[in-house]
Structure formats: C-alpha cells, structure tokens
Records
---
Amino acid sequence: MSSSLTIAQAHERLKSKSLSAVELAQACIERIESVDKTLNAVMHRNFDRALEEAKKTDKQGKFDHPLAGIPYLAKDVFCEEGVPTTACSNMLRNPAADPSDRGGARDFVPPFDSTTTKRLKAQSAVSLGKTNTDEFTMGASTETSCFGVTRNPWDSSRVAGGSSGGSAAAVRADECLFALGTDTGGSIRQPASFCGCVGLKVTYGRTSRYGVLSMASSLDSIGALTKTVEDAAIVLGSIAGRDPLDATTGDEPVPDYTQALKKDVKGLKIGLPKEYFIKGMDPQVESAVREAAKVFTSLGAKIVDVSLPHSPYAIATYYVLVPSEVSSNMARYDGVRFGHTVPERDSLIEYYERVRSSGFGDEVKRRIMIGTYALSAGYYDAYYRQAQRVRTLIKHDFEKAFEQVDCLLSPVAPTPAFKIGAHTGDPVQMYLEDIFTAPVNLAGIPGLSIPCGFAKAKPSSEAPKGAKEDGLLPIGMQLLGPQWGEEVILRAGHAYEQATDWYTRKPSLGN
C-alpha cells in the first residue's frame, strides 16, 4: 500500500517513475474512505482537486523536490484557497447543520492561502483536505470539535490527543504521508505521542503563522506530524523561513535540516530535567523514557541531570496567558466581521450574544471568560502581569540548562492516551495533560516528539478487530533544544530512531 510510504521512500519511487503522483494520491484517498469512518480524522475533503494537482505534477514529470507529488492533510485552521476552513467550530459553519455535513454551503471558505500551504503548493505537494481539531485548537483530546471526537488508531475507545488529534491519527493510519498541525502548549507533540508518530514543534518564529486561525498569538507555532524524523526535517526545510506577512518570523537562515541527520550523537550532552519525572505519572511512561536515555548512552551521548525549577508553575502561568490571548483573538468572531449570523434581534448587544452563544462551544466560552477576567481592571496586575513575569523565569531556566547541555530529554505526557470522556467533566485534569509540553511554548524553544515504547492497557471491546498490538498504547518522548536549535533535536531524534524500531509499528485497522 503506497499510502504507508514515508516521504523519503515515496520521493524515490516518484523520481524513478515506479509510482505516479496520481497513484499515490488515489491510494491515500482510498485509505481515508476505508478507515476514516472509524477514526473521524478528516473533516473537509479536497479529493477531486487533489487528483487534478497530482495529474499536473505527473505531466510536468519533475520530482526534484522531495515534496513534489506528496499527499498531505492540514489541520482545520490553515487557510487554503477554495477549501472550507472552520476550526471545527459552529462559529464558522451553519450551527443548525448536521455534523455529518462536511464542507456545506455555509462553511467559511478562504479566498487565499496561508503562507505554509502556499509554500507547500510551490513545491507541488498535494493537499487532500483538512483534519479534525479541538474547536479553535482549544483542548487536549479533539473532543471539543463540532464534528465529534477523533479516535485513536490503536484503540478507538481512546482519544487521539489534541488539538492536532486529527492530523496525528491520519498520519499513523496512513491516510496521508504527512500532516500540518499547530502547537500552542503541546498540540503537535501530545497527539503524536498518543498515536505513535513524529511531531515537531519549532522555535517560535521559525515558521509563519500567516493565514492560520490563531488561539494565543505569542505561543502558537506551525509544525508537522510525520512518520519519521527524516520526513520532519524535509517538511520543515520547505515551510520555514522569514515571512514579510508575519512580523514574528525570525531572520535566521534556513539550513538544510536533512544534513543534520548525517551526524551521530557521540559526545552530545543530553539533560534529564528532574521536574519532568513526577509523582503520579504512569510508571510505564517513566520507564520508557529512562530506557531511551540508556539508548542514547549506548550511542555515545552523555546523560546529565539538570533542573528547571520554575516548571511546576508552568501550567498555572499558561492558563492565565492563553485565555487572556483567547479573549482578545476571539473578539473578532461577532457575526459582523467574522462568524455565522442569526436572525436580527432588538439590539446589537443581543445580536452579539446570540451569535457567540450559538457559535462557540463550552471550552471556548470558558477560556474567553477566564481571559477577560484576568485582563480586567483590578486583576491585570494580579494575574496577567504576574504570569508574564513567571514566563520569563521559565525561559531563563531553559537558557541556563542549555549552558550545560545540548538538548533535553523528557516525557511528552504523564500518561498514554486516555479514554474518550475521561476528562470532559474535569477541565483542570484536562489542562494537566500539558504539564510537560506547555513550558516549551512559554520559552519559545523547539521540541520533537518521537515514539519510544508502548504501555500495556486492558484490551478495549471497541479496539479495531485483529489489531497487531491489542492492549498496547504508544508512548512518546520529547527532545527539547535551544532557540533555533531544530538541527540538534532532529539529529538526536534520527539517531535514536535508527537504533530502535518503535516508529515502524502500526495499528492494523483492517490491513
């Protein structure tokens, strides 16, 4: 099945003409139609146009770039000309519509491309459509989507993670060769960990946010979910770089990230932050990450214990700053500038109230209210300003750590994928899923999630029949690098990947 190929493998076959772009796109389309009724990962399908793009690429016959002819999916917050983009929210679609109605006439359809999808289009990558996400990316399980939850490919009674759960599930289920995601507090890395694929969160400003619906503008970053570290390096090289349309992008030159993969890790100093191995985490997760540290030692790296003393304050800091920015960013969705409309009311205030009440889900409303409170007169200094100060302390912790080591190694999440509905009645417990990932966004540094083992779980009656790994759930580790340090974590991640086979294991899903 050609949809199971990596980007690097598919590129070689496309160049040699042993596989056509149309055949590759068709294989992914057939895979989506075969398994997505179980997963609910792909929301808006762009199949006819994808096949037309693939035909053009075949006709040109040029596969010089590794992404030429490669099918991908984008999280449903990336604007793409002519393709519905709804952030999986009723605010950008008809709230009265049946949830099974994907790409309806009332959906928001952008008249332009995000910088990321534009750059991929320039390399002749083939867009298949949009993946499921928590509403406006607010969540850690893809359960807040107006289209319903995305299910984990390993066990359909469990979440795929969030908010890029649809992208992670689609990659691991071979519905595409890679997928785009966004990471504000772990939204690429955590679902990659839960589904058993690779997820790269880049340095803030390494990739452009232009044309991507924002949640928290000072923390959002654009990245990819892939099948291998090599594929992550290929995609990053294509989408990274300065963008005049996004003032937050940096002027740092874009290196050839694939060249970093050729180096080994001998002499590399890898830090183990003691604050990331906490009471209450699943012992199987801790064991898997510590075993990964032993693999690095066997490859010639040196493991060093380090401390990030302000990490325990990261979640509290994050959930003051993020709702504050959400409160600001969501203000534009008022039914006048953006958002669906409702029948006219007696006053403009009543109109706003009805639009936002029917358009936004519970989690979005919760964050708007928390953020508005934190920014209000009398509370700004007590909450928002204090949170910004602690954010600076967290950033300094990482800077001091990187004076001692080249990169850091930690778990991605305290547990493997949890059951659907397990945290829906307890928002605080859901927020704690970000405990190991949120500090990275507060500091603005890069992080790479890689499969490093499996946890034993009781087989679910809803798990895919005949699954090769019944009762096993993926565990991910994350490698963290200094600002603009994507090369070092890709280098370390690739070395680990080549020394193990966790990344090669897949759920059967009827294969």
---
Amino acid sequence: MAKPQTMLIRGGTVAMPETLLDADVLVHGEQIQAIGHDLPAPRGAEVVDATNLLVLPGVIDAHVHIQLDTGIYASPSNWQVESRAAAFGGVTTVVDFATQFPEQSFAEALDARLAEAAPSCIDYAFHMMVTDVLSGQEDALGDLVDLGIQSLKLYTTYRPNYYADDATVLRLLEAASRYGLTTLVHCENDALVTAQTQALIEAGDTGWRYHGASRPALAEQEAVARVLLLAEAAHAPVVIVHNSVGATTALVAEARERGQVAFCETCPQYLLLDNTLYDGSEPWRYILQPPLRDPQERQKLWALVAEGALDMIVTDHCDYTLAQKMALNDFTKTPGGLPGLETLLPLIATYGVGDGYIDWTDLARLLATGPAHIYNLWPRKGVLLPGSDADIVLYDPTPTGTLAAERLHSMAGYTPYEGMRVQGRVVSTLRRGTFLVRDGQFVGEDSAGVYLRREPLFWE
C-alpha cells in the first residue's frame, strides 16, 4: 500500500465557517490534518504556495443533471467530460439525480446511474426521482436508506412523466419524514402552465421568444405555497428548488420563521439573467424551467441572498448541446435546461462578492457548507476543518476576463453567460487531497470519483 501523501498549502487566506483566516492548511492523505499560522512542513511534504490566493472549500453543486435522459430528450454528454468541466470550476462534489422510470425499483434506478457516473473524476451523490410508488407502497422509500440515498425529488408539473398530484405529494412526504429523508420539490402549478402553454399554441406563438410567457411566475408561487402547507402537515423537511422569483424565497423564509424545516435554492441564471433576453437575437440560449423572469426579480433575489434567506446557490446544470437547442424554433419542442457547472463559482464570486451582496464566507456557505448540511455530507464535505476531506479550491480574485464557450469544457458547446465579465479564476482544484486542476491544467484521473453514501437525517 502506497504511503499517504502530505501537502502543506502555505500562505493563503482560508475561508473558515465564520471568518477568513490567513493560515496554512496541512493535508495528509485524503483529509485535512491541521489549519493554523506558520505550520511547519513535515518531512517529505509537498509545499504549495497560496500567497495572494483564497483557499475555499470545494464547491458542492447539489442540483445537476449530467447525462440526462428524461424519456423524451437525452443529453449526449458523459460524466468524464462534465466532471472535468466541474473541476475546472472548483466543483469537487455534485448531487445528481437517479430517475425511477415506470416499473423500475430504486436499486435498478441507482445502479444505472452509478454505471454512468463511473468515469467521474469528482465525487458524487444522488437524489432519487420518485415516479412510481403506488398508494399503500410508501414504505418502499425505506429502501433508499439501504442504498445510501438521503433525498428524493417530486414534481408538481410535467404531466404525465413526473407529475405528482397533491395526495401523492402528501403521502410521499409523510413516508419520507418517517425514514429521515429530505424531499426536493419542483414547484409549478401544472394546470396554470398547461393552460398558458395551450393558449400560446392555439395562437401560433410557439417560437423561443414565447417560452417565458408559457410558465408564469404565479404558477411557481402558488405551487410553493401549497407544497409548504403539505410539508408542514406531514412534518417533513422540504427543499424548494430553483427559486426564480423573490416571492418564492419569502414564502420559504416565512415558513421557517414559523418553525418549519424548509430550505430553498436559487441559480445564477435567475440572479444574473432576465426575460428581456427572450426578445433578443438568441432566445434559444434561455429555454429552461422555470423560465427567466422580469428584471426586477434579479434584484429581489440578490437582496434575499444578502439577507441570508437562501440556503444554497446551485446550477440545475443540464448539458443539452447547441445543436439540440437550436434544432427547432419552438419552445414546446426544445429541451429545457442550461449548462453552468464550470461557471458557478466565478459568477457568484464576481456578482455576489464583487458587487457587495455577500462576503467570501457567505460564498462558502452558499456553495459548499449549506448543501453539505442539508444533504448530510457535512462535515466530510463542504468545509475546511481538520478531519474533513481535503476538497480545496485555490482561487485568485484579481484577474479579470469574460466568459466564452470556446474556453469552457462542457459538451454543451455554449454558455448562457457568453461575454459576461468575471473577476477571478480557479487556479487549482483538489479532490480528497489530489490535484484535479493545477495551475489551470487538468492533471486528475478519470474514474477517481467515489459515490457518497448518505445516512438518514432527522431534523429536530
């Protein structure tokens, strides 16, 4: 057995849970051994100079769709390529989804995804998309515990593929609570979305520019209010995903103030982009669900981020290709979702920290510690502390540049943030003490990522 390597990351500014600390980080094997001032380098240790760099916990993108197959559309991406792209962006762990297709067991669904994820260079966990649990069979959710899955996802839209009616949502929330599982819910009122979409179809307004109008903000707000009420009745922890309007986050914050265990996330696209882009020259870039919203919603969301009302910022990364996106100028026939794994950290560093909404410790909380706590990966992941995995990002906050698809690594071949200014760059990324990216070059190994089994989490 090879002797564990020792590394001293010297002279950086370390993002601790509550403060920034000018300190060294000692790594032994896969874990952080010590953090402190002027730590001596053990004999034989590699010394990494982090002068003028921020030392951040590896980013956990807790809402991604790599190599996605919805049964209608399939992204041609693979985990080798997308996990490398993630590493270039400082992402060391993702929580993706295993879809339970009709008549499929949870174990079968997970096995299929584990086989697809095997080439990953970063670590990964899975939420289970629950689509086929009949009334009276809710205790099947207990099987997720044995599979190392601590979270499941439900949808209040996408009929008939994923849609769950209120009775189904309630009984699955109740069962999830019994087993210490956390439920994520995609909240849009299906009847409102269906009616609005049908009206646009009948008017012949199916071009990309009409996509935003097909899924009104009211559909999200109504569904969020309803799901929070059901989760409260079920005494079930719930995560409201990809908030696109301020009112959604406010509803979750109000529920939390009443003592409910409720969390929420938003994404860079809702913080940085808006629905005026649908009237621009390239509306195909912005087909996603929920769609982009009115410009004032961006400021509402940033204000809520600054207040600490958001628990996570994730990407909802979906790597459909340029060709798939541009195939038909018809929002009803264009796969929805945007790539974003590689750009998450630099965008939030630029427009969150750089514009004064948050500081670097807030960034670490939103991109790492928060997801780790909610999805029971903490303290192994999401934090720089002795005993934690040495998932570390060395970030230089000084260089400026612009984003361009030609310099990114996703198979999508485009970015919705083309031409946007960024401040800073990922210099190096370590996953469990091993460099994946060093000085801007990929040096990692494919298939070195591991599946992270998670235990149930019972919130008090």
